[in-house]
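tool=predict chain=A
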Amino acid sequence: MRGKSGLVVGLAVGYVLGTRAGRERYDQIKTQWNKLWQLDVVQDQVTKATDFAKSSAMALPSTLWDSAVKVAKAASSNGSAGSKIDAVIKANKDSAADVAQAAETTAAAVKDAAEDAADDVSDAADEVNEAAKKSTRKRTGA
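tool=predict ok
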C-alpha cells in the first residue's frame, strides 16, 4: 500500500509540475489537494503522527541516559583501576544492547505508524477522487 500511495503522490506531483493545461487545471488540483488535506481522516493521522513523534522521541534518549548512568556508576565503583575498567566495559556492552533494542523498537513503531498513515491518506484520496469524478460527471452531463 505504501508503494501505491507513493506512486499516486508522484504521479500527481509530476502532473502538476508538467501539466500544460494551464492555471485553471492547476487550481482544480490545488483545491482537491486542500480538500484532501482538510479531511478529518487526514488530520487525525497528522495528529497521531505528531503525538507519536513526541512520545517516541523521548524513548531513545531516556535509554541513552540510563546507559550513561550505568557506565558512570561502574566507573565510580570501588576497586582497582583494572576492575573499574572491566566494570565500565561490561556496562557499555549491556548498554549497547539496550540502546540497540530501543532504536529498533522506535524504528519499527515509526515505520508502522507511517504505513498506517499512508494507508489512511490513500483511502481518503480515493474518496476525494470519487467525489471529483462525480462532480465532473454532473457538470458535463455524462
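The longest helix spans residues 81-140. The helical segments are 2-18, 23-38, 40-57, 59-75, 81-140.
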